[in-house]
Specification:
heterodimer; A: 496 residues; Purple Acid Phosphatase, chain A, domain 2; OB fold (Dihydrolipoamide Acetyltransferase, E2P); 6-stranded mixed beta sheet; 10 helices; 20 strands; globular; B: 1105 residues; 29 helices; DNA-binding (chain B); DNA-directed DNA polymerase (chain B); 3'-5'-DNA exonuclease activity (chain B); DNA_pol_B_thumb (chain B)
């Protein structure tokens, strides 16, 4: 007769371990969200976009100029010393000079609303173009400030990612065609980085001290996931979603893994929790219509299932783990950057875990529905994260697959959404430009990416930033764990 | 501090409602400062291992190659550019006259661009010919000795010996101090009007010493006051004189010089003038007309001289709400672009500015602190750069007169010398009247020696557009929108900083550059040059005068060759009408089979050729008997009953002219196909077009009863022949292509008009229809006299025949792919239609013809109507614009009424005379008239005034839609498009002004069921308790609306930034012609409103707990 013990050796079923398993305690999360991207409730739309560019330039230009002076103060070409020029329009022909300004890239393939209007197309439709850059070199790069703009030419431009809205300094000279021959260019580079625990206090180390130091439990972790894509029609990866739920709840796998999982102090959902609605909009996309067309609003077109599924998913997790929920492109939040938190109205079950609505200075709730992009301090680290639209939009400008490189570029430009508002819809800020990175994050993540990726970049003053591309779960079945002590990143794949 | 390095952004105050889209900032600009200083607390936690400060992204390439190649070249460039800066060193002057130029050895050869009458050496009459040599030197050539003359038929008894006596008699009758009659000679000539049996008769050629006396002599003779010895029979109607033509044209005809052609003064025949120069041309010379060589503009001589083209625009600082007036308002900027013909880039780009202005890339900025100084500097520039052609947009009616008036008001000395001679430029009111173009009041300013081309006039003349603002013309031809700064904004920009003035200068420069680009795009210069060459008239005549002078110039040239004289017929405009072209009654309907179209190539010209219809062949019954002519052999009787001799007796002059024109066109087309040089191509294309137009205009002028030489017999016979030919074609086709003759179907002619016939062969195969069409064209052609030719050109498939001259179809010339969608007579460009009509019609036609989706088109119409009734149509599509041309219309009109109402509301911002008034129709009190219900679109937006959707449905959409759908669906079904389910759901905006709104109390309603939310609990919320479970759905609905509007808002305003070419400057464009102007205004308001709706959920119990 075979006993259970024998089988255990074979790695099959095990008899319950004799020693009563220690009740695992989910580790506590140190968490302080920032309101950087919160918009006022009463939003004004009388202003234009010029203010954003003006603010951005004013904020980033000094840093760019500092970098430029450091690099070029002794540059001489043909016996001529490079001179600093205050404004773009002060560039004179035949003078070696350098100037800072905002990049604008003129691309014929950028979707044009004028064209859409004249062809009677639905103008709020998501852009269908895959990219804006054109292969035949019709794009032109310009540098502008409020004084004017100048066209940039030169091989040097090809060495850098450049997108509309980033602030750079260029060294060069105006040629006979009135274009600027660029010899070299500089950007602001990483902003100053705050210390760890600069905003929040580590939780008092009372009875937990033992546990955190116990060898079995490694250091704390944060879980990052995006692109859950709960769908009202497709069940293609419903099993994986269930497994993910069990995994996060610690219901799966063996005790050692479970205890490891107990170290996950927070789940951050980085956008696209709901699948793209198929055939959602009725408006003028009207070549083929269902026969039973109703003229006017059609309540039956609404499919409540995806948000119900998400609600259930979260409400099951929430008792054991706090969640930070960022909206993404397909989520029920407004479309333009920064996207505001998803409203509690969508989550009748989970909303019980949120902070008190309409209350001032409330503690963040167990379920924290936040903006996209979002900034906060988690375990003392400054985290900046987005649902990924900013990165996706930049990718349309550059003929390159180096998404991490583009994330790095954003940090070095000190701008988390340079292409807003030109091609990335944005709120017309007037007093503050929140996309400017005033402080360097320790962790910078972008959600809904086609694949996982990570790297550390370093700044001139010793700043280190961990870049993370959070893969879309629906496509890759992967989630990302970040160690909160070493900032090491591991990827977990849920396989059926 | 950053604040020190960046200039303050300028804030614009509110000036007028035309710019109400530019928002007064809620707070001042100073709030932007102080800026957050970066908190510098470098992270110490993360180890910094990198000391490399070069953070390149991605890593840069090695620098060595770059240094050796680029930098070296660049340092070379830098030193070159230091010497030659395009912002400073633009050469204005023409190239100097070659040093070795010697009148005794070199001939003087130039392209004559303008010709005018003048005098030389005191009072001697001479012709001034202005032109440019191949090397770009400007020339003025005085041509002397040419005497003007007229003909009068000599009386029977008049002999050559009588000439001196008759001359003396004429002198005595004129009773002037000096000699007037140069000489009288007896010559043999033939009257052009009517067949003369090919016999020349004696005519007296009377030449005068000075062309200005010619009319005196002519009227004297015509009145009968010169009836020497009573030799002329005077039956009371006066004595006919012949060859009444302007002196300059007479000269050009007799010397066979045509407009814009090359002339040459051979070496030694001319004298270069030095001290007695009358002009500022580089070379001025005089010569006798006898030695002048005129080159026919063919082959080598079809080239163009390097003409200098100045395109300019001025900006004026108007006062608030008043269109600039020269008496008060300063000219603040003049932008100039000078291009040499044949070069792609302008060689001069500058802006004359009042007050300091920041520099513009590759443009010379000339700043002045005094307006008078600026104006005289500009005039000096004009003289120095010495343009041959001055172009611009609306320069004739605005820029020229304004500059002159302003200079007068400022008493700028000698400002008005813009011409090449010492003649002052004066602007005069003229009235242009033409049967083709109607009456038009214009101003004309003389710039002797320089041509003018006002692109506005040109586009108005040659193209039918919705709007003729520079903005819409550019968007039509160049495919780009242009920033439009309202004139009240201009003053504000001007009074700002050097940067804001720079912005204005950029705008001004753009406006100066666009006419040049338009001219290039439309090949205006080439087309008009060729027209001048083909017809022989000077360039300036083409825009300033009508069709007739072109025809007469050709006729006189031909008549001179054949010794014909042209009677000076008194023009009497009679109301006599003749029957026009025929139209085969259309068999209306929607044809889902190929319809072949057979066209007569140049129908009327070829009829006139085929039947020898001409002045010279017209014959009267009496003369037939006199010469004993045989019918059908010596003469023909036209279907109209008129008689013309056949070619056997005499070949008609018109036939010869037409033959030449058409064969020249064939030649030009052949050369065009072989040519590769784009400039030469443009010239050749211009020529073939000019030839085609002239050939077609011949017929029209014989029918112009108020013209110089009407001949209704020719005109009515031509149309009569046309009518019979169309009928004949129908018979032939329908008789031949029948099942009885072995074809698969009986062919049917479904429609015919003027020169084309539409045939339904019955086949469904496109290729088959094309083959049959080709065959039919050849078959029918063989039945007609040459050169009448029926051509098969295209097949329409499918084809929608709505009515006479109203049809639409897909146009195929080869069976593989259709060429285009062709529509005739369907409301697409009429301006008193709103844009909605245009877009709906276009889309419907596209769906019917291209997609062949009639049910889809119906569905589309229904959903559009539903959108309209539910207020979901964008307002910019509903705006109707009309120009406010005068204050007191007899009948009340919507736009005039509105302008008056707007004046009452805010006099400063109301549209003034000459402005275009944009309006939408709004719901009014019951029984109010249409003109009372027009409203300013911006006012409508701001106050939520409900749109009168019924008006748009009934008065704008109903008719054209009915016309399209009736042939397809039948009358009843077509009507059902306008009534039905989709018209039931209606939503009307709740206005915030007027009537009862003052007394209304606002209550929120449930977003689900519209039940008023009156309970205390729910008053601020979103839904009622019954609809609480739907909260997610309703939230999503509201949210989607917000998202939708956010994207709109973003796309619209970034588009405007792109269009204005700056991200850092506020958009100040107020172009009402722009399709997104109202849209972006509406987006702002809608977005705010939608966000307010959204916040209601924050207070809804169902959404929170």
């Amino acid at each position: 007769m075979v006993t259970l013990d024998e089988i255990a050796d074979l790695g099959l079923l095990q008899k319950p371990s004799d020693n009563e398993p220690e009740p695992l305690q989910r580790i506590e999360s140190n968490y302080k969200p920032l309101s950087t991207f919160i918009l006022p409730k009463q939003r004004q739309y009388q202003q234009q976009f010029a203010d954003i560019y003006f603010l951005r330039l004013t904020k980033i230009k000094p840093a760019v100029e500092e970098a430029a002076i450091a690099a070029w103060k002794n540059t001489k070409i043909g016996g001529e010393r490079a001179k600093k020029v205050e404004r773009v329009l002060d560039v004179r022909q035949g003078e070696l000079c350098w100037v800072a300004g905002t990049v604008y890239i003129d691309m014929p393939l950028k979707p044009s609303i004028l064209e859409d209007v004249s062809k009677d197309r639905w103008i709020s439709a998501p852009t269908s173009v895959g990219h804006y850059y054109s292969e035949d070199g019709q794009d032109s790069v310009m540098l502008e400030d409020d004084s004017g703009r100048i066209k940039l030419v030169g091989e040097a431009l090809k060495n850098y990612f450049l997108v509309t809205g980033c602030i750079i300094a260029i060294l060069g000279t105006e040629n006979a065609n009135g274009e600027m021959e660029v010899i070299d260019l500089k950007f602001a580079d990483l902003p100053p980085q705050p210390d760890r625990w600069s905003l929040s206090e580590p939780k008092p180390k009372d009875e937990d001290v033992e546990m955190t130091n116990s060898p079995s439990s490694g250091s704390k972790k944060i879980a990052l996931v995006s692109g859950l894509e709960f769908s009202g029609t497709s069940t293609a990866y419903a099993t994986e979603l269930n497994l993910l739920l069990e995994y996060l709840l610690g219901e799966a796998l063996d005790p050692s893994v479970q205890s490891e999982l107990s170290q996950i102090s927070r789940l951050i959902i980085a956008g696209n929790s709901i699948a793209k609605q198929e055939d959602a909009h009725h408006a003028s996309d009207n070549t083929k219509k269902p026969h039973t067309k109703k003229y006017g609003y059609d309540a039956s077109a609404y499919n409540p299932i995806p948000s119900q599924l998400l609600d259930t998913f979260m409400s099951e997790l929430l008792p054991t783990i706090p969640i930070t929920l960022l909206p993404g492109t397909n989520d029920p939040a407004n479309a333009s950057y920064p996207q505001q938190p998803i409203h509690g109205a969508m989550f009748p079950k989970s909303r019980a875990y949120t902070a008190l609505p309409n209350a001032e200075n409330a503690e963040p709730g167990w379920l924290d529905m936040v903006t996209n992009p979002w900034e906060g301090e988690v375990e003392g680290w400054r985290v900046l994260g987005t649902g990924g639209q900013n990165l996706d939009d930049i990718c349309k400008y550059v003929d390159s697959a180096d998404r991490l490189g583009m994330m790095e570029a954003m940090c070095r430009w000190r701008c988390s959404a340079p292409t807003a508002p030109d091609t990335l819809w944005a709120y017309p800020f007037q007093d503050d430009e929140p996309f400017v990175m005033k402080e360097c994050p320790h962790i910078y993540f972008a959600g809904s990416q086609p694949e996982f990726g990570t790297k550390i970049i370093e700044g001139p003053e010793g700043q280190n930033v961990r870049l993370i591309m959070v893969p879309s779960f629906a496509q890759t079945k992967e989630i990302v764990l970040v160690d909160t002590e070493t900032l090491d990143v591991t990827r977990v794949k849920i396989n059926v | 501090m950053p604040s020190a390095t960046l200039p303050k952004q300028r804030v614009f105050g509110e000036a007028s409602s035309a710019r109400r889209n530019i928002v007064a900032r809620p707070s001042t600009a100073s709030k932007k400062r102080p800026l957050d200083e970066p908190t510098s607390s470098p992270a110490t936690r993360l180890k910094s291992s990198q000391n490399d400060t070069k953070n390149k992204l991605p890593s840069s390439q090695s620098k060595s190659a770059f240094e050796s190649d680029v930098l070296e070249r660049m340092s070379q460039d830098i030193s070159d550019l230091k010497e030659n800066n395009t912002e400073k060193d633009q050469a204005w002057e023409r190239p100097p006259v070659p040093a070795d130029f010697d009148p005794a050895k070199d001939s003087l050869c130039f392209q004559a661009i303008e010709t005018e009458e003048g005098t030389i050496a005191g009072a001697l009459p001479a012709i001034k010919m202005f032109g440019v040599t191949e090397h770009g030197n400007s020339v003025l050539l005085h041509v002397k000795d040419f005497k003007h003359y007229l003909y009068v038929a000599a009386p029977v008894a008049f002999t050559a010996e009588d000439c001196p006596n008759f001359r003396t008699f004429l002198e005595s009758q004129l009773a002037q101090q000096q000699q007037i009659i140069h000489h009288v000679v007896l010559t043999m000539r033939e009257n052009i009007y009517g067949f003369q049996g090919n016999i020349q008769n004696p005519y007296l050629k009377i030449s005068v010493t000075d062309p200005k006396h010619i009319n005196k002599v002519r009227t004297m003779i015509e009145r009968g006051d010169a009836n020497w010895k009573g030799m002329w029979k005077n039956d009371g109607t006066g004595i006919m004189t012949y060859d009444s033509i302007q002196y300059m044209l007479r000269f050009m005809v007799d010397c066979s010089i045509s407009g814009m052609s090359w002339v040459e003064a051979p070496a030694g025949t001319y004298r270069v003038m030095k001290g007695d120069k009358q002009s500022n041309c580089q070379i001025e010379a005089e010569m006798s007309y006898r030695d002048l060589i005129a080159h026919k503009p063919v082959g080598e001589w079809s080239k163009m001289a390097p003409l200098r083209i100045l395109s300019f625009d001025i900006e004026c600082a108007g006062r608030k709400g008043i269109f600039p007036e020269a008496q008060h308002d300063a000219v603040i900027q003049i932008a100039n672009i000078v291009t040499k013909y044949g070069e792609k880039k302008p060689f001069v780009r500058n802006v004359f500015c009042l007050d300091t202005t920041s520099p513009i890339v590759a443009t010379q900025i000339l700043s002045y602190d005094d307006e008078a100084k600026m104006l005289s500097a500009w005039r000096e520039f004009l003289e120095k750069v010495d343009p041959d052609i001055i172009i611009g947009y609306n320069i004739c009616n605005f820029d020229f007169p304004y500059l002159l008036d302003r200079a007068k008001a400022l008493k700028v000395k000698d400002f008005e010398y813009w011409s090449r001679t010492k003649v002052r430029s004066v602007s005069k009111e003229t009235n242009f009247s033409s049967k083709q173009m109607g009456n038009r009041d214009t101003k004309a300013t003389n710039t002797n020696g320089r041509l003018q081309l006002d692109l506005l006039q040109l586009v108005q003349r040659d193209h039918q557009l919705r709007s003729y603002t520079l903005n819409s013309v550019c968007s039509h031809f160049l495919g780009e929108q242009k920033e439009d700064v309202h004139y009240s904004m201009i003053t504000e920009l001007f009074e700002g900083t050097p940067e804001s003035r720079r912005r204005l200068a950029l705008y001004c420069l753009k406006d100066a550059y666009l006419p040049q680009r338009l001219m290039d795009k439309l090949s205006c210069l080439e087309n008009y040059t060729e027209m001048a060459r083909v017809t022989g008239v000077p360039f300036n005549f083409l825009l300033a005068r009508g069709q007739q002078v072109k025809f007469l110039s050709q006729l006189f040239r031909k008549a001179l060759e054949q010794k014909l004289v042209i009677p000076n017929m008194r023009s009497e405009s009679s109301e006599e009408q003749y029957e026009g072209a025929t139209v085969i009654e259309p068999t209306r309907g929607y044809y889902d089979v190929p319809i072949a179209t057979l066209d007569f190539a140049s129908l009327y010209p070829s009829i006139m050729q085929a039947h020898n219809l001409c002045y010279t062949t017209l014959i009267k019954k009496r003369d037939i008997e006199r010469w004993n002519l045989k019918k059908d052999e010596d003469y023909i009787v036209t279907p109209n009953g008129d008689m013309f001799v056949t070619v056997k007796k005499r070949k008609g002059l018109l036939a010869q002219i037409l033959e030449e024109l058409l064969s020249a066109r064939k030649q030009a087309k052949k050369e065009l196909a072989a040519e590769t040089d784009p400039f030469k191509k443009a010239v050749l294309n211009g020529r073939q077009l000019a030839l085609k137009i002239s050939a077609n205009s011949v017929y029209g002028l014989t029918g112009a009863t108020n013209g110089k030489l009407p001949c209704l017999e020719i005109a009515s016979s031509t149309t009569a022949f046309g009518r019979t030919m169309i009928e004949r074609t129908k018979q032939e086709v329908e008789a031949r292509y029948t099942i009885a003759n072995g074809y698969t179907h009986d062919a049917q002619v479904i429609y015919g008009d003027t020169d084309s016939v539409m045939v339904k062969f019955g086949t469904t195969e496109l290729a088959e229809a094309m083959k049959l069409g080709e065959d039919a064209a050849n078959f029918v052609s063989s039945k007609f006299i040459k050169p009448i030719k029926l051509e098969f050109e295209k097949v329409y498939f499918p084809y929608l025949l709505i009515n006479k001259k109203r049809y639409a179809g897909l146009y195929w010339t080869r069976p593989e792919k259709y060429d285009k969608m062709d529509t005739k007579g369907i409301e697409t460009v009429r301006r008193d239609n709103c844009l909605l009509v245009t877009t709906v019609l276009e889309k419907v036609l596209r769906m019917i013809l291209i997609d062949r989706d009639v049910p889809g088109a119906q569905e589309y119409v229904k959903s559009t109507i539903s959108d309209l009734l539910q207020n979901r149509i964008d307002m910019s599509k509903l705006v109707i614009t009309k120009a406010l041309t005068k204050d007191d219309y007899a009948a009340k009109q919507a736009h005039v009424e509105l302008a008056q109402r707007m004046k009452k509301r805010d006099a400063g911002s109301a549209p003034g005379l000459g402005d275009r008034v944009a309006y939408v129709m709004v719901k009014g009190a019951a029984g109010s008239k249409n003109f009372e219900r027009s409203e300013d679109p911006i006012y409508v937006l701001e106050h939520n005034v409900p749109i009168d959707t019924k008006y748009y449905l009934d008065n704008q959409l109903a008719k054209p839609l009915g016309r399209i759908f009736e042939p397809i669906l039948g009358e009843t079904k077509a009507q059902s498009l306008l009534h039905g389910d989709h018209t039931r759901a209606i939503s009307i905006a709740a206005p915030t002004v007027g009537g009862l709104m003052k007394f209304a109390k606002k209550t929120q309603t449930c977003m689900g069921c519209k039940k008023p939310l009156t309970g205390k609990e729910e008053a601020n919320g979103a839904v009622c308790s019954n609809d609480a479970p739907r909260i997610g759905e309703l939230y999503k609905k509201t949210l989607d609306k917000v998202s939708d509007l956010e994207i709109r808002f973003g796309r619209l305003w970034t588009q405007c930034q792109r269009c204005q070419g700056s991200m850092h400057c506020e958009v100040i464009c107020s172009s009402k012609d722009c399709p997104i102007f109202y849209m972006r205004m509406k987006a702002k308001k809608d977005l705010e409103d939608a966000n307010k709706e959204l916040t209601r959920f924050d207070f809804d119990q169902a959404a929170i707990w």
